[in-house]
Amino acid sequence: MKHPWFSTWGWVYRPISWPGFLVTGLTLAFCLQVFLAVDHRSHSVSDTLYGVFPYLVPAAILWYWIASKSSRKADGR
Length: 77
Hints:
Blueprint: E1 6-9, E2 12-15, H1 18-41, H2 45-69, E3 71-72
Parallel strand pairs: 1-3
Antiparallel strand pairs: 1-2
Helix pairs in contact: 1-2
């Protein structure tokens, strides 16, 4: 990739350009919004976890997929 958005950092990816920061920020904003909406209606911790799981896990998987496809490897490739 000519202009990578992410760079590998151990087992995870870190954003290194504005599109990477934008994708990361949008993912975090979505996760926070879902958490607050679900937690507002929950009566226990397990209610919150069961409510956010179907949204946060796919969002994290999508973010990870985007990061893996638009990243620069640690060895510079």
